[in-house]
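*** Backbone structure tokens ***
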Amino acid sequence: MSSEVTLFVNPTAGRGRGAHAAQPAASALRAAGLSVRTVLGGDGPDALARLRTAVREGTGAVIAVGGDGMVSLALQALAGTQVPLGVVAVGTGNDFARTLGLPVREPARAGRLAAGALKEGRIRDIDLGRADGTWYGTVLCSGFDSRVNDRGNRMRLPAGRFKYDLAMVAELAAFRPFPYRITLDGGGVIETEATLVAVGNGSSYGGGMRICADAVPDDGLFDVTVVGDCSRATLLKVFPQVYKGTHLGHPKVSVHRAVKVTLEAPGITAYADGEPLGPLPVTAECIPAALRVLV
């Protein structure tokens, strides 16, 4: 095992928390006797290209400092390799870290944990989703939630999460269920009116919303949560339950498990790990043991 690790840093994550978190994380890694190489990038594609070079040249581990967007970039370089991923979660959502029980917004502790895991061999192999060539670790979402993302991303003001709250209010005003065609494992087809469909390798998205509450990231299966044709009033009642995962017991909610899922619906964008994938249709496949994680 190489004693050099690569710190993959998003300095703008969490309104600047990424830049502040990199130093205590690096200090914790160096205190454990590891050599630290830092990788930044001018933008996402540049950062990913630099990380791929670091992985190709050899590194003992990659430690992603930032939020789920930074983890998502790291997955594109690490999936299918033997290089493990550590996470210093200091972004807005941090759902990848939450799913794995890793520290959130505690960069020094996260750095110490990653260093200890690397030296002691505490590595967990987990599954990843692959959606039309893009790897993801938590949830692929589509429907009402992706419409909120679409609207929020178009808004310049206000800054931060509040604009997504406003976007949700606006989408509720125009809300209607969407006609979905869902194909599971290439066989079973579900044609239904649905509020949203989420394909979970992990349990949560959006900063702790447990949309696929029972998903396990190393069981070889997706949890597919389908929220049916809710009225506006029902959606408002069910939505707060998502934070505890109790929405799964609602009669309008069903859960299916599958290795491969194809979603079709007109006018809907898919998002995975909070990043836009593109318009439906999209096909996602659960790839077993695709990533090694420092735990």
In short: The two ends are 17 Å apart (CA to CA). The chain has a mean pLDDT of 92. DSSP finds eight helices and 16 strands in the chain.
